């Protein structure tokens, strides 16, 4: 169990070595598989055949909806929901680490997508229609990366915070199984080929190791600095993230102007995807999701603002919920903040100017939602004694 120290920071037990060893073994196996060109191409061609077969011979309306819903839980909405759950059970320093690893992981993934520009199977194959359409590039898989990074990091932080050493193997088995099943749903609904999912899975593991097993002390000191006033609002990590936003925006402008996607990809997508999906460009879709992800940084700014501007010293202290019911109430409060403050994005038309779609709807709305959630939920939890 974590113990409080005099300066308000949280003393953590060391990170679980079992989680690190498992992740390293999986990464090594994936590297050996994907470094062989013939295996890489075999995975691509055969998984495309599997997708076409599934969509033609095994597609059922209710099953498609179920698999698409499960698949969507690895997207921005599913991760935001999981972050709301995490806020109810994690210390603030662990929660900020989870925010950091999630936002950085998706940012790196989308940057790699914009640089590689690998097509999803329905960009070039007119032989099937996916259940739903995403318009970012395909590799590495964003769902494969984000789900792996988030849930394995969440499990590791739970094990460390609550001392769940006797349950960690079970938790990791459940975590890896969920990640693998999530990847399968992406194949079932026709959104990714196997090698794209494996690359995303491997990237997610590497980012998980970097943050939760290597940079863990840095994030503990970052939160300790917020509590003691030693951490600047715009520290090196935050500056790096904003520089990544600037780089991604410049890369988007360059690609849009000088290196657009092949025309036959655009033609195939228009045939494969429903006309109700508002499509601008593949690089726009990457940058938009990139900025939505960075909106979660509002939690960091909310934590800082609450401690040093509003002086909510009591609200920044974590108290473990005593019952499952109180945990559920905490989660619902967190979700309510995010949902209510995300409502304004509904009233921004999809035909608005691109800067409005990117920086107001894409970044500012989720930033305000997570900022407010971090700002006030601690006080509400204390007031309701939950």
UniProtKB/TrEMBL annotation:
PANTHER family in the record: DIHYDROSPHINGOSINE 1-PHOSPHATE PHOSPHATASE LCB3-RELATED (PTHR14969:SF28), SPHINGOSINE-1-PHOSPHATE PHOSPHOHYDROLASE (PTHR14969)
CDD domains per record: PAP2_like
Keyword GTP-binding: no
GO cellular component annotations of the record: endoplasmic reticulum membrane
Keywords: Endoplasmic reticulum, Hydrolase, Membrane, Transmembrane, Transmembrane helix
Membrane topology: Multi-pass membrane protein
Superkingdom in the source lineage: Eukaryota
SUPFAM superfamilies associated with the record: Acid phosphatase/Vanadium-dependent haloperoxidase
Subcellular location(s) of the protein: Endoplasmic reticulum membrane
Protein name from the UniProt record: Phosphatidic acid phosphatase type 2/haloperoxidase domain-containing protein
Family per record: Belongs to the type 2 lipid phosphate phosphatase family.
Keyword NADP: no
Pfam families: PAP2
Regions that span the bilayer: 20-45, 66-89, 169-191, 197-216, 237-255, 287-306, 327-348, 354-376
